[in-house]
Design a protein that fits this description.
four-stranded mixed β-sheet; 15 strands; alpha+beta; globular; Sigma subunit
């Protein structure tokens, strides 16, 4: 597809349906064991991606986005449960053996052995580190190998499982659901016509709950639970969405920290977000619920409620719902999720003297999943946990009317060389390139940088290179 075709969701949806529908349904079936549920999950995924309308650069990104959305649709429906297929003639079927593994182990094996993804691609789709994929694969194969040696002497577990998965996926041909998808999309479009001011504000808040540009399923935002503030506390509470007077339109330049899909480091997006409370509450609510604009970023959070955000002197107290914590399924994910909250909250409140700490609560309790009650509050761990370069402006997906583009961001003090390159996306035509000279480092070791460069109309890809590490943003210039 050309750049314009990737931008036209009507085009890429039908093209993606033609190319990927059957494989996505078979993939979903291998993850849930029921054809009806598989087709429903993939149908919902197409409608969801159409509604979100992300900007795709290539066909591979369309496929990757849809695949991840299907996985998350199934996760949302099934929770921790994985697939189950009844055995034939009273004996365990191949997929019954697979169903004895944990859900994440099932997902890893299906992606690697049936979808033929490599470990890096599997990590990207499932929101894992590559090392975690390797460990999960080894553990699952070891578990299955023990069963085979004791029950039927199978020696080549992976080869056997590839054949078994292919056989299971070929049992039935997926039915044609294009008309169903089209009808669902028409219903969504009709519901979106002529909204009232209240509906506009409500929809904007809902966007925080479902994500806006990444293949992550976010939980709904629930009505907040109010409690009396502590004496002398500067408390942030989520306002009642039914009270229009309590809500302004947007909070500008809200820092929200996400995770790089490829390296797991923290990256910042400066967002204009529907007001959930003051800037701190809006930022933390976004961390928990809002998908990143940039498809190269992800989040350890799957959605939930921010009960309150309170600042007591140098201590920032964040109380997050139990449902949000419970959706985090590993200690590794928990560590990443905590870092997102800590760095975001500290960025909003400010910490010039390095004294701020963050206390995290689970529905008012200090006991957190996997770690129990921490021995101390959480603090920033320095710049080593952060990507070496951040682009603050513009953000991916923006449409800008300009002949010159101002690009701004931050780079770590340790970076020796930083440069920029601007191309027309898809065609690759070079528009501008040059060297960037950042300013002096601040107290945290970051240096501000800014560059103004000419641009041409079209989809424009901005590349910032910091000692070989590249940060990308795709924007549209009108």
């Amino acid at each position: 597809m050309t750049s314009d075709e990737h931008r036209d969701r009507g085009w890429w949806l039908k093209s993606a349906y033609h190319d990927q529908w059957d494989d996505l349904v078979r993939l979903a079936f291998l993850l849930c064991g029921r054809w009806e549920d598989a087709e429903r999950a993939v149908t919902d995924a197409f409608v969801e991606v159409y509604r979100i309308n992300p900007r795709f650069r290539t066909d591979d990104l369309v496929a990757d986005y849809l695949r991840t959305t299907v996985v998350n649709q199934l996760r949302r429906r099934q929770g921790r449960a994985g697939l189950h297929v009844e055995g034939r003639q009273g004996l365990p079927s191949p997929l019954d053996r697979l169903s004895q593994l944990s859900r994440i182990e099932q997902e890893v094996l299906v992606m690697l052995l049936w979808a033929d993804l490599d470990e890096d691609e599997t990590a990207h789709v499932l929101g894992l580190r590559q090392g975690s994929v390797e460990n999960l694969r080894d553990k699952a194969i070891h578990t299955l190998g023990r069963q085979f040696r004791t029950e039927d002497g199978a020696a080549h577990v992976e080869s056997w499982l590839r054949v078994a998965l292919e056989e299971a996926a070929s049992q039935q041909a997926p039915s044609d659901q294009l008309e169903t998808i089209d009808e669902r999309i028409r219903q969504v479009s009709q519901r979106g016509r002529g909204p009232s001011r209240r509906a506009v504000v409500g929809s904007a808040l809902a966007a925080l709950g479902v994500g806006v540009a990444a293949p992550v399923v976010w939980g709904r935002m629930h009505a907040p639970r109010r409690s009396a503030p502590a004496p002398g506390a500067d408390e942030t509470m989520i306002p009642d969405p039914s009270d229009e007077k309590s809500m302004s339109t947007l909070q500008k330049d809200v820092p929200v920290l996400y995770l790089g899909r490829s390296d797991g480091l923290l990256y910042r997006e400066m967002r204009d977000l529907p007001t959930a409370s003051d800037k701190l509450g809006t930022a933390v609510t976004a961390v928990i619920n809002a998908a990143p604009l940039d498809s190269d970023y992800t989040s350890a959070w799957m959605g939930g409620q921010l009960n309150k955000a309170v600042v007591h002197g140098d201590v920032i107290v964040l109380d997050v719902s139990g449902a949000a914590w419970d959706a985090i399924r590993s200690r590794e994910k928990l560590t990443a999720a905590i870092r997102q909250l800590v760095y975001t909250a500290t960025a909003v409140v400010g910490d010039r003297n390095g004294q701020k700490s963050v206390q995290l609560l689970r529905d008012g309790s200090p006991s957190l999943p996997f770690i129990g009650v921490p021995q101390a509050n959480f603090i920033e761990e320095g710049t080593d946990r952060c990507g070496p370069v951040w682009i603050d402006r513009p953000q991916s997906g923006q449409t800008l009317a300009a002949t010159r583009l101002t690009i701004e961001g931050q780079v770590q003090r340790k970076v020796r060389a930083i440069s920029y390159r601007i191309n027309l996306a898809g065609k690759g035509d070079l528009i501008s390139r040059g060297v960037i000279t950042p300013g002096q480092p601040d107290h945290r070791g970051w240096r501000r940088w800014s560059v103004s460069a000419p641009v041409r109309p079209g989809d424009v890809l901005i590349t910032i290179d910091a000692d070989g590490t590249k940060a990308l943003k795709l924007v549209t210039v009108s």
